[in-house]
Amino acid sequence: MQKRDRYCFAVLGATGAVGRKMLSTLERRNVPVESVKLLASPRSAGEKVVFRGQDLVVEAVTPDSFEGVDIALFSAGATASQIYAPEAVKRGAVVIDNSSAFRMADDVPLVVPEVNAHALEGHHGIIANPNCSTIQLMVVLNSLRSFGLEHVTVSTYQAVSGMGQKAVDALASEIGAWQAGEANATTIFPVVNQEQHYPMAFNVLPQCDVFLDNGYTKEEMKLVNESRKILELPDLLVSPTAVRVPVLYGHAESVSVRFRQPVTPEVAREMMRKSENLIVVDDPERFEYPHPRMVEGTGETYVGRIRQDLADPNTLLLFVVADNLLKGAAWNAVQIAEALIERAQHV
Ligand code: A2P
Questions:
Q1: Whose CA is nearest to atom 20 of ligand 1?
Q2: Per-residue pLDDT of the chain (347 residues; tens, 9 = 90+)
Q3: Do residues 291 and 220 share a domain?
């Protein structure tokens, strides 16, 4: 990417839950933006979205939309990424892709800037933004990696906004229908059978994304494979369970980490306090711990409930929370853009 004073951006999926946050994060982090093109499907062409106080008009994406674009932020799903990322790269843009389309490709860096910004070196035009539940886990594990990471067991409590704006609307409608005493299932959450979907309101569903042949869900295997790639620990043991909960914004994770040596909560807390963009909120006497409503709207990762496993001095138990649309998606993508801009200054 060439060095410039200000950069031309495009956001593909600009009308979606993450796309909108990409725009607000560009504003909040004061990124040097020359212009931004808002792209989506033909369904929302002509819609207006405000950026830096100005109404911008959403355009239906075509390959030529990326002409003159320096940095393209993608969050329109894997199919759209497969089609448009190569077209954008052909036209000289660097793509930061929030979908799962390219994450495990050998020549595509998978980046959490606090953890592995070095992986950006020598990219080939596409950089992948990791899965939301992986990103927040990486920020914490990286801060403790000097103790020797051996085995990570993680259960997630994932907000519905991770499934897009339609899931946020569906949960609200299920709750409204329940209050009115009406039938309240929607057609967004996992299917029971061809006619029925599971209710999400007042429920907890141990299924995020589809099941794979090994009995794990796709989301669970993302936690395994993406963690190994980002931490560059191909043999790291990861035992995941991904669960959807009726929360709008913010993923929580109950994490157990076994190290190669005994680690006390005091020492771990000190290490985590020194880590970039990781905030320790851990004072049981004052009832202080992180939770989704607390972190909504922030770009940091939060950790609390730090305890030694009663059965094993080499294992710590943690509770990790982040805003899934921000650190888990848009904020991380914009941080990657900033890291690219920073690198372009020194070429
Ligand atoms: P649109 O609003 O026109 O459907 P979410 O994750 O909140 O559901 O949002 C998905 C985003 O991706 C929306 O902006 C949506 O646009 C966009 N999108 C989905 N499929 C495509 C596609 N095939 N081409 C372009 N944009 C797409």
A1: 76
A2: 889 999 999 999 999 999 999 999 999 999 999 999 999 999 999 999 999 999 999 999 999 999 999 999 999 999 999 999 999 999 999 999 999 999 999 999 999 999 999 999 989 999 999 999 999 999 999 999 999 999 999 999 999 999 999 999 999 999 999 999 987 778 999 999 888 999 999 999 999 999 999 999 999 999 999 999 999 999 999 999 999 999 999 999 999 999 999 999 999 999 999 999 999 999 999 999 999 999 999 999 999 999 999 999 999 999 999 999 999 999 999 999 999 999 999 87
A3: yes
Q: Give the range of the structural domain holding residue 240, as residue numbers without chain letter.
A: 134-324
Label residue 213 exposed, middle or buried (CB < 10 Å: 0-12, 13-18, 19+).
Answer: exposed
Amino acid type, 160 = V
Handedness of CA 22, 27, 32, 36 (dihedral sign): positive
Ligand 1 pocket, 71 CB below 6 A?
no
Cα 75 to ligand 1 centroid, rounded to whole Å: 8
What's the CA-to-centroid distance between 17 and ligand 1, angstroms?
9
Looking up tokens 């819609």, which residue turns up? 47
72 Cα to the center of ligand 1, angstroms: 15
Residues 78 and 149 in one domain: no
Which residue in 8, 132, 291, 346 is the catalytic one? 132
